[in-house]
Predict the structure.
Amino acid sequence: MKVKVAILGCSGRMGRNLIQAALEHESVELIGGSVRDSSPFANFDLGELAGIGAIGQKTSTELDNLLDADVFIDFTSIETTLENIKWCQSHNKALVIGTTGFSDEQVNEIKSAGRDIPVILAPNTSVGVNLMFKLLEITSKAIGDYTDIEIFEAHHRFKKDAPSGTAVKMGQVIADTLGRDLNKVAVYGREGITEERSRETIGFATVRAGDIVGEHTAYFADLGERLEITHKASSRMTFALGAMRAAFWLSEADNGYYDMQDVLGLK
Ligand code: NAD
């Protein structure tokens, strides 16, 4: 049985890859995709958007035109995703959220939507990144309490939020494993003359440049040695195919709030 999906924000960088991934995935049927009211890509062929030639399916500016889909995949913006959640709740549709940058309060809003619909919040849908989260948990347990922990991330010049959702999630996994409160121990960038580093802090450093798809490293550094755990994405298709995997998994899930660790059976 194929799962019927719709892609919200289908003319974006991720949206175009998601169209291609949906068309390539044997367990997925693409129902359609949404663009903004004012978009130059309104009523535009989805295949043309993905750069694979016309497929005879057009974009839509109204979610109501996508009611045949069972699972909605949203890679848009924070404001749009928060509106889309409400629409999915009122139409009883499952939702995979790839959008990043939500505040704690907004994450709680998404969590509570899990009472009405199946919802996945996945700031990074790549399988490799989610395996990295597991490795961070293991490493934090083994050496996290005596090493200095820093997180580095790099992305393309167009990315709007910083640090990346993935970097924040890396920090969250490490902090949770070590029993620390990330809001208290996170240090976002350093400048000028500062105190010496205190052991429990988790530092974040960000680079925005060119066309970098996404790179993340966690450092666990002691005097005399350091361990670095790195993930590098070289194509957005890795995120798009992971999102299809999430959509397929979610189509069979009960109402609830999930993440990619659930999808990949890593819990
Ligand atoms: P983008 O700006 O290229 O695409 C976003 C698209 O959403 C745009 O085309 C925009 O017009 C569209 N959009 C906004 N409001 C809309 C509305 N009301 N209706 C329809 N379309 C609307 O950005 P991007 O690089 O594709 O990233 C999108 C989001 O996904 C960002 O939050 C980014 O951080 C995140 N992201 C997540 C992953 C992951 O693995 N989860 C990977 C890459 C990017």
Summary: The chain is about 35% helix and 25% strand. The chain has two domains: 3-121+236-263, 127-233.
